[in-house]
Amino acid sequence: MSLEIDRVSKSFDGKSAVLGDVSLSVEDGEFLALLGPSGSGKTTLLNIISGLTAPDRGKLVLNDEDITSVPAARRRFGMVFQSYALFRHMSVADNIGFGLRVMDRAERPSKADRKARVEELLAMIDMAGLGDRYPAQLSGGQRQRVAMARALAISPRLLLLDEPFSALDALVRRDLRRSVRDLQQRVGVTAILVTHDQAEAFEVADRVAVMRDGAIEQIGTPDELRARPATPFVESFLGLGPTAPDWTI
Amino acid sequence: MSARPLLIAIAILFALVVIVMPVAVIFARAFAEGFGVWLAAVSEPETRSAIMLTIVTALIVVPINIVFGLCAAWAIARFRFPGRRVLLVLIELPFAISPIVAGLCFLLVYGAYGPVGGALQPYGIQLMFNLAGIVLVSLFVTCPFVVREVLPVLSVAGEDEERAALTLGASGWQMFRFVTFPNITWPLVYGAILATARAIGEFGAVSVVSGAIRGQTMTLPLQIELLYNDYNTTGAFAAATVLAFLALITLVLRGLIALVHPVRGAAT
Hints:
Radius of gyration of chain A: 18 Å
Largest interface: A-B, 34 and 23 residues
CATH class of the largest domain in chain B: Mainly Alpha
Distance between the termini of chain A: 30 Å
Structural class of chain B: mainly alpha
Oligomer: heterodimer
Helix content of chain B: over 70%
CATH architecture of chain A: 3-Layer(aba) Sandwich
Strand order of the largest sheet of chain A: 6-7-8-3-9-10
Radius of gyration of chain B: 22 Å
Distance between the termini of chain B: 46 Å
Low-confidence stretches of chain B: 263-268
Number of strands of chain B: 0
Helix content of chain A: 25-40%
């Protein structure tokens, strides 16, 4: 699915804009990262895409469908939250199967089919046999993978990732970055990642949009950004300036 | 020397003198003349009607309280709106106001000469000195219980989980039913039990608005006082055992909840 974001604006207090006329297009199957410091509006933009926050102005078009006023529950976008937001009173299997269980009767798969789908996803995230555990019994990395599987279970039209690695220690983070990228490729879903970590964005994403003060400063492939940073902000934020440390990944 | 035995002794002695003894005496006095006399006393038509009225009141008040408590706790925990802080304070107000003052306030507003009661009078609607009045003041005094138990849990039970449910396609109802409600089930039940205990035992506020019509608007606590003032000690103590028994049931339920309260999922 391709997503067209057309001049989206948002202000929470009616005065200062958190997002000002942001336009962006995400191609089918692409992995895009929204990269920026805190307060740059990247999370707000992701929430607007998910439908959890309504934009003041602007339009969102998915393929050829205007989804601006479609509620979050009807968008079928899988979302992985920074806190993972796993349902603490449900087992891992019930967490993953939740999106299938709440489907309209007409579309909802049978109980057996749902169970099979959950097993398949558990195997995909290397957690086969752990479906009976509860979130509190899992490691941070396992919780992140469950959150990922839960988002993928609904065969999402878009995958949205809000700082999904920030709560993990460095070693686990490296592993999971690869596995998230790997899962996205295997499923073939268009994905948008929000992060403040340039190494993470460069490693995972096909293209990176650098955000600052509610606007997109520059967008391009990691190679393009490295070779031709458009503004001094991009250059310094990516650590590309003359005094910057070595940025080998 | 260690303070340990002394502290334990003080605690136990205090509990015995202040809590156990009075309750034990009620039961002892009530059954002093035998079970038959006790049974006859509690089956007196007036006492029976008081027991029924008390139970009916609780059955009306507690469900309304649960619904209101859930709505208020949800609104305060999830939304920022003008008057939110005021609402928070208002809900606690019944704890601060003496029940008898609350009863008088209701009488002044909903009585025949009050603004609301006066306006309803021509239509033949009377809100005081009957079940409606007793229910109204009981709602007032029990109002804080459910909100107070549910609100703190709802505030920490992440909004993120609810947002996740929405992105996964859940309707508002499904989100509440499958995600929000399981997190607040026990606080809700606990609040409802406390509200029930209070509704059953309330004396002051109810005594002002009940009108004290024998066999009609006497709740159990009022009936006990009436019997006692009539020098019918056996009847008073027998009725008191019924009230104490209802209170003990709520106490046992409280204990049971503490036992089964699920502790898994401290962190997600």
